[in-house]
From TrEMBL:
Native organism: Streptomyces kunmingensis
SUPFAM superfamilies assigned: lambda repressor-like DNA-binding domains, Periplasmic binding protein-like I
Signal peptide: none
Keyword DNA-binding applies: yes
Region (Disordered), start-end ranges: 1-22
Cross-referenced CDD domains: HTH_LacI, PBP1_LacI_sugar_binding-like
InterPro entries in UniProt: HTH_LacI, LacI/GalR-like_sensor, Lambda_DNA-bd_dom_sf, Peripla_BP_I
PROSITE patterns, per database record: HTH_LACI_2
Residues in HTH lacI-type domain copies: 1-50
Name of the protein: LacI family transcriptional regulator
Amino acid sequence: MAREAGVSKATASRALQRPDMVAEATRQRVQEAAERLGFQPNAAARALTTGRTGLMGLIVPTLSNPFFAPLVIGAQQAAEDTESHLLIAVSEYDAEREAALADRLSEQADGLIMVTPVGSDAALRERGRRRPLVLVDRQVGRLPAVVADTVAGLAELLDHLLALGHRDIAYVSGPAGSWADEQRRAMLTARASDAGARIHVLGPLPPTFDAGIEASAALPDAATAALAYNSYLALGLLHGLGVAGRRVPEDISLAAADDLSTLSATTPPVTALDVPLQAVGTLAVTRLHELITGHRRTVTSRLPAAPVLRASTAPPRSL
């Protein structure tokens, strides 16, 4: 390939592995020769030359929840754009398993993305000192993070319910140890109190359909509206309320903190937050690539989540 481009082997290697070190005309000539010959750089050789493997570790809490699928798609596309490959592992919301997976991936990958990690702040800080690390939907000090701003989006949903006249609102919360859930609960409680309303917290609960069904039977009698931590809980609530003969929104309004495609097709369609998950995955990989290539940023990027108002929310019957 070097002979085809008319350069030395060392120059050809630099043009492919460190293009910033060669002239643009030379880089283009080598690239064109590589394309004509169908040349693909050897990953092992690249690792020896650059100290990087081209691999990124991505740890997600579960793949059974479709919430994470768009995030993985966005991350995969961004990895391809940076000529990297993803190694994906599933922690199942278990801190010990999460740590073991992170240790294992760190032996192969140039850096890690950890989605809604449940490990301690101290453990994540230490991991960030040892390896490039980007957090998703979790903030720890000055570690780089990408956060879908569901807290601000839920504040808008709460304001919507308050404007409709609801003053007793149930929050069906998420899993124990969830940083995002803690942020949401604190905001909802404080904002409702400022408006002279009350938040009734149920949980912590696993973000599952069955947990939503169980929660539907535990809603306080005073609650005229319910906010669910995620779509699965909202679907379970909708089903459980229907079985119990309680109508949405006539008897109780319902909204969710993310928007699965099925929520727009339920009866009634459920008010929810449109969370830009694919963009979150893309930006997380971009931030990690910046760290790996020496552009260190201690920054938290927030992507807005916007309410989508549907027929599941209405004024309470007493109004």
